[in-house]
Amino acid sequence: MKQCDNGHFYDDARFDHCPYCQNNTGVEKTVAAGSIGKTVAVMPDVAVYDTDPGKTVAILKKEIGIDPAVGFLICIAGPHRGADYRLVAGRNFIGRAASMDVALADDDMVSRENHALVSYDAKHNTFSVSPGLGRGITYCNGEQVEMVRPLQAYDVIEVGKSQLIFLPLCGEQFRWNEE
Fold this sequence. Notes:
This protein is mostly beta strands. The chain has helices at residues 46-51, 57-64; strands at 2-3, 9-10, 30-33, 38-41, 69-77, 84-88, 90-95, 102-103, 116-121, 126-131, 138-140, 143-144, 149-150, 156-159, 162-168. The protein is 8% helix and 36% strand.
């Protein structure tokens, strides 16, 4: 493991440089978030985004405390059976680490970070699942996920020993309106 100048850890056997910082993705230095050991990006003052026409709405939503649920993953098999995980607009990372959006800490077959990814595209009102950067394989309804794949209600995502059923909130009958 290697740590980049911004504080991200990555596997230097798999990557020549930090995959989180590459191509100006906007991920900046990380710092500890309270006593739980999570890391979060150090963000510039919110006022900077208010004047920028290309502002990132998701960051502003988090800053003012609004990040509504767009769907849920519920563990139906595995060490976390019965647990539910809230999905928000954008990318939701699945992994073992506490910093993951869907943290499956007790499933030792799940990669620590970015085993898989569930995304909600608010512009097109669609969900998708894709494999992450981890070594583990992701399945959807028993088929290996090798690239981005559309996600439908009641699809079952399998990572490690865990099976997660997908329940969308947003779809044809409901979606959050920007106000």
